[in-house]
Amino acid sequence: MAITESFGTERAAASQLFFDRLALQQPFGHENDSQIFGDFGREHGAQLLEEQLIGQYFLKVLNERENAKRVMVDVGANHGNSLDIFLGMDWTVHAFEPDPSNRARLLASWPSCPKLIVNEEAVSNQTGLKLPFYASEESTGISSLDNFTPGHRKICDVETMALRDYLADHRVQHVDFLKIDVEGYDKFVLDGFPWNADKPDVVLAEFEDKKTNRLGYNVHDLANVLIGQGYTVYASEWLPIIRYGIAHDWRRLVRYTSDVDLSETWGSLIGFLDQPDEDVLRQLTMESVKFGAGTSKVSHPADVAPSDVAYGEANHLVLSANGTYVAIAERLKRRSTALYLAGRFAVRSVRTVWRRRFGVGGLAVATIILPLLIALLAPSGPLVWPMMALSGLGAAALFVALVLSALRGYLRHRDEDARRRYSAILARIDASNRRTGKLAEELSEVREQTQRLYLLDQMRSKAQCREPQIPRLDRDFSIEAISEHERPG
């Protein structure tokens, strides 16, 4: 049995056992027949690996073209979180990542990879526009053409590219998988796709009405674009975002209809050009769900306030923001990496304490400041030095806690990277096993044909041995000689 087949069987069995037990403890049912799987709460800490689900769908369902050169277009590639599993399956990936830091990290993760083409343009419905691009220290995953959080700062100007122009320039005949995650601009990307020339087998696009309502569309408009092109659409729904930069909570996978209320949540629309078997889709979803620390422990969600935007020419957003902080950070990084890292740690520490000012952060600051104030305001006496010592201990404890928090975040990131690479390796092994299996079948057919030819040759040899031996006549053995020989003496 192939390695991945064994692994997949064991994983499916483990998934089924887990969900059976979970259902006994706290049933999660279906609202209606359109619900494929789930309805988890924050207490479950569920997360759906949507790219893994789609990768397995291609391997197990759309496998009739396994020897074809498959193509993925990843719009909003970030660090390569989505494309790695497809590179591991020997696909060609055309990635777009306008954020310079994210793009550098993506290229560092896949150095000199001939199957990966990384582009710096921001994909939209038009080519050639020059627009400001924003990033946030809060999360590397929310870089966007829109400064939709207070923490967004302009980092550069980018040019836009419509996929209809890019695919024509690069002579891409067919896109197997189109993945879009551009923080609100997903419909613009779809509007720029050459639907008359090609239709991807699977499309993954992010939705969140809180971002897109001010851009002129909602989740139903986004879904209608796919439905209008003949896709069966499913919604991978996640619970409302508590704060950027932390793990989010997945709720369910549901077949999209206009009656499904997605206005207060967010997630991804998955469009299948060929309507999938929903039992198979449910099983693949079960195998792609993981459980971790939920966000229910986050006590103070950060409000995401919409920024002011104005529509400019070409019906595209023209945005503005103050990029002072990013500019200072870039200059400091060029002068000294150590100072840059120290400054970044200080800024993130201050933000961490500020976000938790009504909880642990506020208590830690109070532990430092109050004893210090008592020591400074009190006359010389026995309380001065103990209070100063207590303040120093509080500061040291806060520093250690912040260092451990930063180290924990770093290790968590490394763990996520390792898991993604592990998934990519498994996918590559699975693809290799499938190719090896096909070669084994072809070899078996060749052996059978060789055996048949050998048996046929043996039968021909035996038939020749059984034929009667006819005497050879000399050329001068004439009729007259025969008559003379037979004449009586």
Give a verbal description of the structure.
It is a single chain. This protein is an alpha/beta fold. It folds into two domains: 3-317, Vaccinia Virus protein VP39 (Rossmann fold), CATH 3.40.50; 336-466, no CATH class. The chain is built from 14 helices and 17 strands. The protein has helices at residues 3-25, 50-60, 84-88, 100-109, 163-169, 186-191, 209-212, 219-228, 278-288, 324-335, 337-355, 360-377, 384-465, 479-486; strands at residues 35-38, 46-48, 71-75, 92-96, 116-119, 122-124, 130-136, 139-144, 152-162, 177-180, 202-208, 232-238, 250-255, 266-272, 289-291, 310-311, 317-318. The strands form four sheets. It has a nine-stranded mixed beta sheet with strand order 1-13-12-14-11-10-3-4-5. It has a four-stranded mixed beta sheet with strand order 6-9-7-8. Strand 10, helix 6 (186-191) and strand 11 form a beta-alpha-beta unit.
Topology:
Layout: H1 3-25, E1 35-38, E2 46-48, H2 50-60, E3 71-75, H3 84-88, E4 92-96, H4 100-109, E5 116-119, E6 122-124, E7 130-136, E8 139-144, E9 152-162, H5 163-169, E10 177-180, H6 186-191, E11 202-208, H7 209-212, H8 219-228, E12 232-238, E13 250-255, E14 266-272, H9 278-288, E15 289-291, E16 310-311, E17 317-318, H10 324-335, H11 337-355, H12 360-377, H13 384-465, H14 479-486
Parallel strand pairs: 3-4, 3-10, 4-5, 6-9, 10-11
Antiparallel strand pairs: 1-13, 2-15, 7-8, 7-9, 11-14, 12-13, 12-14, 16-17
